[in-house]
Specification:
Layout lengths: L2 H15 L15 E6 L2 E9 L5 E3 L1 H6 L8 E7 L6 E7 L2 E6 L1 E2 L2 E2 L7 E5 L2 E5 L5 E7 L1 E2 L6 E6 L2 E4 L9 E4 L2 E6 L4 E7 L10
Length: 201
């Protein structure tokens, strides 16, 4: 390859590598403005997407949230144009809201001090300070119980539309194992067994 072509290729690489990279979940379309839900009341335009693609709650709405003794509050953010699109978040003052999985039609509970959090199409676990303490590497995950959690890779979430009350869903397929609160595998991953179902409600 002639020297001038090598120099041109190197210059192109430098230009491309200098572009800013944003940490946005490309798997979902984040609306610019959110509405917030509290029982029996919806607050219009209570949050907006920040420069990193994650939602930021308006100060007036943050001030009215009910924080628990650990300084945590939960809020359901809804797409301002499509109320069917919604996501539960945990909130702390001074921290960007963190998305969590749904449990019993509300935000995931902290079991053994950890809750499930979706990140980039995968699931990890956060602590009460909203730190992601177990990386989001799983396609399916259940709450912790007695210090361990059942997780799976290459599994899919299945919904039962015949159930009229609550949410009935489970994971099928893939490889299954158990992890401890530090994310260490405590039961080796094995293939899913047909007919075996792990409900979480």
């Amino acid at each position: 390859m002639p020297d001038f072509l090598k120099i041109a290729a190197l210059g192109a690489l430098l230009v491309l590598s200098s572009r800013p990279v944003m940490a946005i979940d490309r798997g979902t379309v984040t609306p610019a403005v959110f509405d917030c839900w509290e029982p029996e009341r919806i607050f219009k335009q209570c949050a907006a997407t920040g420069p990193d693609g994650r939602p930021r709650l308006k100060r007036a709405f943050l001030a009215r949230l009910r924080y628990d003794r650990d300084g945590l509050a939960s809020v359901l953010l809804m797409d301002g144009t499509d109320k069917q699109k919604s996501q539960w978040y945990y909130v702390r003052r001074g921290v960007i809201p963190v998305p969590v999985k749904v449990m019993d039609n509300g935000p995931d509970y902290f079991e053994d001090g950890l809750a499930r959090s979706p990140v980039g199409g995968k699931i990890g676990y956060i602590d009460r300070k909203l730190n992601l303490v177990i990386p989001a590497t799983y396609d399916g995950a259940y709450p912790f119980k007695d210090g361990v959690a059942v997780v799976c890779t290459a599994c899919t979430l299945v919904f039962d539309s015949t159930v009229t009350e609550g949410e009935r869903s489970w994971y099928e397929g893939g490889q299954w194992g158990r992890i401890d609160r530090r994310g260490r595998v405590v039961s080796p991953f094995r293939p899913w067994e047909k007919g075996k179902r792990f409900d979480f409600d």
